[in-house]
Specification:
This protein has 363 residues and is of the alpha/beta class. 45% of the residues lie in helices and 14% in strands. The strands form two sheets. Strands 2-1-3-4-5 form a five-stranded parallel sheet, sandwiched between helices. Helix 9 packs parallel to helix 14, helix 10 packs across helix 14 and helix 11 runs parallel beside helix 14. The longest helix has 22 residues. It is globular and about 50 Å long. Bound molecules: 2-deoxy-2-amino glucitol-6-phosphate. The site of 2-deoxy-2-amino glucitol-6-phosphate (AGP) has 15 residues, from helix 4. The site of 2-deoxy-2-amino glucitol-6-phosphate has 15 residues, from helix 4.
Length: 363
């Protein structure tokens, strides 16, 4: 097992460091050099033109990627919603043959997700899975499959598969929007150079992160909060899930604007708030973070170096400038590192947290 970890103490850290490669693989060949449009294996131009709404179904970290994809679709003008697969049997909106239901699942074997996929299929929806495992049950049962090409992920805590799912869904959102409009979406031109730069930007974060120092600075806290807006919201949820999963400490993610609707009652000097800034109404997120800071909470801003939040915050995790569609994924790498180092300080069994399995094959 040690041999498989290479120079790293844990698979999780190795997999965090594999993200420049796994993301390059997720993107490779999926942008047509001729016309700069999204090319997806098995999908002819216009393949999605009849789709009038999209439902994304998933659990856990994959649900956070699904939420990211759903927001990307909505922002690209396509009606969509992300649903927890384990709620689907009691909460599914109606579907018809113009509904695309996307099962997002790293393993392709999660029972809750497979059940929801089967339900959607039996009700007549068009189905697709976004998965890491070729030959998985989801890949076999969905009408179509898109593979994220992240390579094997051994750590129970999903890291590189989350970022690859989110990137795959970002590409897919652009493609569905393109097909629906019958012309290239304007957003795509701005996004492509930043997408191409992302693997190198992540290398930069991994080479020079303050995450270890920040994990140790706040290690005696009572609870850890993560906030974000827009595409920063699923990243905040994912930051908190990762943190609780491997440190066994209490953590919660919130939409920034929700803090004042209840969670603020929990905020004290012992509850650091990690605030993710994606460039989507950042001034509002900063105000929300300052409301927590006024109650004594230390604020850790995850944002570019020249961002106004850096002056206000108690600590800073730097991310490079990029498109708002991708900024949350850079922030996510910093949050993965914070969770990892916080768990390491506590000497937790990082790759195999108690009570959890890599793939949950029971309902
Ligand atoms: C996250 O770190 C967990 N491994 C878990 O939430 C996972 O994402 C969930 O069980 C869904 O798994 P899947 O992607 O294989 O369907």
């Amino acid at each position: 097992e040690q041999a498989g970890k290479g120079e790293y103490d844990h698979f999780m850290l190795k997999e965090i460091h594999e993200q420049p490669t796994s993301l390059a693989q997720a993107i490779e060949g999926r942008i047509d050099p001729e016309n700069g449009r999204i090319a997806l294996d098995g999908f002819e131009p216009g393949a999605f033109e009849e789709i009038d709404s999209v439902q994304l179904i998933a659990c856990g970290t994959s649900y956070h990627a699904a939420l990211y994809g759903s927001l990307a679709l909505n922002q690209a003008g396509v009606e969509s919603t992300a649903l927890l697969a384990n709620e689907y049997s009691v909460a599914a909106p109606p579907v018809d043959e113009d509904t695309l239901v996307i099962a997002v699942t790293q393993s392709g074997e999660t029972a809750d997700t497979l059940n929801a996929l089967r339900q959607a299929k039996s009700e007549g929806a068009d189905t697709l899975t976004v998965t890491n495992v070729v030959g998985s049950t989801a890949a076999r049962e969905a009408d179509d499959a898109l593979f994220i090409r992240a390579g094997p992920e051994i750590g129970v805590a999903a890291t590189k598969t989350f970022s690859s799912q989110a990137v795959m869904l970002t590409l897919l959102a652009q493609r569905i929007a393109d097909d629906a409009a019958g012309e290239p979406a304007a957003d795509l031109e701005a996004l492509l150079p930043d997408l191409a730069a992302m693997p190198e930007q992540i290398e930069g974060i991994l080479a020079d992160s303050d995450a270890e120092w920040i994990a140790s600075r706040y290690q005696d806290s009572r609870s850890y909060f993560f906030i974000g807006r827009g595409l920063g919201y699923p990243v905040a949820l994912e930051g908190a899930l990762k943190f609780k999963e491997i440190t066994y400490e209490h953590a919660e993610g919130f939409a920034s604007g929700e803090l004042k609707h209840g969670p603020l009652a929990l905020v004290t000097p012992e509850t650091p708030v990690f605030a993710v800034f994606t460039g989507e109404e950042d001034e509002k997120t900063l105000k929300n973070a300052e409301e927590a800071q006024t109650r004594g909470a230390p604020v850790v801003a995850v944002c570019p170096d020249d961002h106004r939040a850096v002056e206000v915050a108690d600590a800073h995790l730097e991310i490079p400038e990029t498109d708002p569609d991708l900024a949350g994924l850079l922030a996510n790498v910093q949050l993965q590192l914070v969770s990892y180092y916080a768990a390491d300080l506590l000497d937790r069994p990082i790759d195999k947290p108690r009570n959890l399995a890599k793939s949950v094959t029971v309902e």
